[in-house]
Design goal:
Largest sheet: 4 strands, antiparallel
Number of strands: 4
Shape: elongated
Low-confidence stretches: none
Distance between the termini: 82 Å
Mean pLDDT: 81
Number of helices: 4
Structural class: alpha+beta
């Protein structure tokens, strides 16, 4: 009788430990994935590059838009824009109205979901960079009504 109880107690403890370890594993792998993903977002050097692009963009003027606008060198009042894009390794540049609901068709959708909505800007300037064969993203706020 006591041997059966000890066996049952051992099975219950092993099951409890196994479930606990599985839960911990799931939590830690999720944390590691989020951290690895965040390393591809908002690098300081990319934010500085976007700041300079924002200044060039504001010099040329921004047309008010209620939807996402993909920016090209035609939108900048700067003759060497293509050289600047190549030097900064920018693949795509978007001007997104503040609070706009981005759908999954855009390459920066998962990045946009990580951004907080606590800052008040007219637009967000969002860029996709190619660094070491990986897509990196950064954004900076843009106010055109100052």
């Amino acid at each position: 009788m006591k041997r059966g109880f000890a066996l049952l107690e051992t099975i219950i403890v092993i099951t409890f430990v196994a479930v606990s370890l599985l839960m911990l594993y799931g939590t830690f792998t999720n944390m590691i994935e989020k951290k690895e993903r965040s390393l591809m977002y908002d690098d300081v050097s990319h934010i500085y590059e976007l700041y300079y692009l924002k200044e060039y963009l504001l010099l040329g003027g921004i047309d008010d838009s209620s939807s996402i606008k993909k920016l090209t060198c035609d939108d900048f009042n700067y003759s060497s824009c293509s050289i600047l894009f190549k030097e900064f390794s920018i693949l795509e540049l978007y001007l997104v109205p503040y609070g706009y609901e981005v759908d999954t068709n855009y390459s920066f959708y998962s990045y946009y979901q990580t951004l907080s909505n606590d800052e008040e800007y007219d637009y967000l300037l969002v860029a996709r960079f190619l660094i070491e064969d990986r897509d990196n993203y950064a954004s900076i706020g843009v106010n055109i009504h100052e």
